[in-house]
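#struct-pred

JT: dropping the chains for the assembly here, can someone run the whole complex?
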Amino acid sequence: MTTPKIIPARNWGQRAVALLLIIIVALLVSLVATSRHIIWSAIPQYIFDETILDGIKLTILFTVLSMVISIIAGAILAMMRLSPNPVLSAFASLYIWFFRGTPLLVQIIFWFNIQLFIPSIDIGSFHVDTNSIITAFIAALLALSLNEAAYMAEIIRGGLMAVDSGQHEAAKALGYTPGQAMLRIIFPQALRVIIPPIGNQTISMLKTTSLVSIVAAQDLLTRAQNIYARNFLIIELLIVASIWYLVMTTIASAIQFIVEQRLGKSTNQTPGFVTNALRLMRAEGRNG
Amino acid sequence: MSIPNISPAASPIVEAVDVHKSFGSLDVLKGINLAVSKGEVVCLLGPSGSGKSTFLRCINHLERMTRGRIFVDSRLIGYHERGDALYEMSSKDLAAQRRDIGMVFQRFNLFAHQDVLTNISQPPILNRGTPRAEALDRARELLKMVDLEGRGSAYPYQLSGGQQQRVAIARALAMNPKLMLFDEPTSALDPELVGEVLNVMRKLAADGMTMIVVTHELSFAREVADRIIFMDQGVVVEEGPARELLDNPRQQRTQAFLRRMH
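RK: done, full complex below.
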């Protein structure tokens, strides 16, 4: 007697949807690929254009600087928010409320036009025109950093609150000063919770920086716009920019993946964030 | 209040005078007076909500008292007394005072991101300026003392509750405290793990460490404590030598409590 072969149940509904998707994607691709309105040769021509590469440098610079500034400012705001002093905590709440509640685009335009209500800075005999300090670069950086700091403050506050209060008590009982306890005991443990969302924010920031093109801050999108303003290859240059944004976010995601793996290995009370996510995905794959 | 069972020559290492504590309108401590002499083991017994843990936490100023004074080694804890007012110390001064007072918590509170050896050696390195090599040697010695030789590279989550609590005791001892406070050290443990922690505490008592222990372990109190303080509703109801208090409680509340515990 032979053992009967096991044939898993087929989900015909899923197969039908999959087929439909394949058809739709194929149609879209052929529509774009065979379009007589896209000059494909323009893409290799511009992808390594010096202007575009300069724009990438600036986009990366905006991302890195605004993330560093916002993490520092966010940490300060988070500690203020958690402080027992009502003025400090109210200030932090107000800041977060304001900067999360107004559009980033508005904030960028505001900083760029700050000279309209503060035309110059005078301290004693020191005099300087606001315009000469608040360049498009500085306005863009200020807007990105101050806005991001509000989100960072909430992320860091969440991380600090996730650390068991017993850890703080033990540190106190062992004679740690509050600063030491924060630095040596609380913050390192909060990092486990803080780092994954910081990774997400960084990836998001790579794309958000494109908003600064509104003040012509010379980022990647600004450069692409400058070029297509001259030659009208709008779609082609937007494709060039998109390719670079995809490259940057893919690399950033890979870095995030590696960092989270490390983090999960070194200090796991619970299995790492990534390990958990992978396990979930695998389990779902099995079900599907 | 009289201080029974200690020789008059020994000046107390802990002295609490009229300690009050209230949370809002709730009076948790209503005037606790207590003196503990060097090398003495005192157990605080009492029903939950009697204020014994709160009182313990006042001794190293983890809890701010509402009135009264506590001295450890003749130094006022948590405050500078000027005129007729007590000014709370800066967090730096508080930290310095706490370095001499070891504390063991119900929930162990080992630093989750550090291995066992770092848990034990970092506090003296940072807070006593002990050279690293010396602190690590001492940490290994203490691990041996709590029967965890060779487990220095383990992380807290890899240890059982009993093992974690023994590491916590070693960590407190690494600061060379003058006094050890135990806040229900075995209450969070599975019953079969209680013994290993009590064994370490027995050893410590035999070595002459001054200990104040909040506990529900009556047999431990009977065997190890020099003196038992029975608290209820924020006051000391009765105190006396361990056996005497456990076998012949004089106060009705003590009798009722002990009946419930058996």
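JT: nice. The two ends of chain A are 32 Å apart (CA to CA). Chain A touches chain B at residues 164, 166-167, 169-178, 180, 184-185, 188-189, 192, 267-269 (CB under 8 Å).
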